[in-house]
Fold:
Amino acid sequence: MKRTALTSLLLLGAFGCKAQSAHSSHDGASDTELTAREKVARMMAREQGPYGKHELSLFDGRIEGRAESTTKPRIECENEDDQQTCTVTLDMGTSETGKPSAIVCVVSTGLQPFGQQIHHVAREPKALAQPTFDAREESHGLSGHFAVDALVEEEGQPTLMSLKLSTLYSHAQTFTCLDLQPGGKETFKRVVGDLFASLAFEDPAGYTQKHSLGYVKRQGNEAKGFRFVQVGQVDDETVQTSLYFTLEQSKEQWQTLDRDVFTLRDRGGDLSKYQARHWMHSLGPMVITAKPSEGGKLRIKVENGNKSNALEMTPRADISTEERMAPELMALARRRGKTTRYGIPGLDEDGDPTLFYSVLEHHEPGIVHERVVSHADFNKKTDEAPSELHVDAHGVVTRQVDADHIIELVHREGQPSGLRTSRTKVSRR
Structure:
């Protein structure tokens, strides 16, 4: 595809050394091209501050911290469909082009999928280089950090964008900050890093957090994703939300994978609702729901766009999650015992709803092997290499080792006892 002149100039600005080498076989770049390269280079080198810090208070004081800004942060809040949202604008002076510069933060109740926030602000960015990603523990939660230099269409013209997005998950709330202007990467890292470190969270009204866990997925030394899990109480019901993010990269392309899993249980521990949503890059969500039906059956439904399919089947093991299986994992890690299974709603190869099962068995002290099998292969042995789960004295998985990656526990708040109030089971009512 033929590049426009502006696209070529932006690429030259982003990769000055390569561009100069590429032009060495010609008579030389024109003054106009050199000026454009220099302007882009200056934009990409933009850094600002540091500036003074201001007190920040959101959601009637439930979230408090300190934010760097040239002026007092501008805060606008709204409440729609029982979800509270605040937009916080942190002034960063002016950019190289004389335009106002700012870091904008959006704070909301609920856990928002990380990758979908990226695609919300940049639907189809044409990356100039591979994106960078990191995830780590923050005070009271887990944070993810994404950055990429890209070209986007703006009013029909390619425009250089330096997308920087960081999100902190804590106490059933999402705190996301972003900056789209070229350059400013060290400024963004400093401002957002200090802000996240200063934040203190309280639970949203009507919700009491019992326990939260944060994991980072790594390949070698590089972070490739995360998982954040929180368990809380709403009235007499126990709510567990698990948020997953993966960044897949090749030499030429990258894509994001998002998944969130929501389970609701009554006071006795009976499952009343299961929901899993899946996104691939900007596509989705595909939604899988499961609810107890008559005769001990489970009704599983999948919705993908305007298509849906549902069936009822009898689970061969209770529907559960790794976190809720802490007592069984603790027992298996301590000694050899009976193999334990739990069910996971999903899709078969034809895209129809079905059940899979996590098969857990003792390997050696402190380590449990996990294999995932289909409903049809419930009692069959498999030759697939298991996941190696390192389990602590409370039944919490602290490290998972797979063939091409590891997943490590980096954040933990609350007591594991909050995960379980009774036997895990599907409601028979």
The helical segments are 5-14, 16-22, 31-44, 114-121, 185-198, 326-334. The chain has six helices and 26 strands. The radius of gyration is 24 Å. Residues 25 and 170 are 55 Å apart (CA to CA).
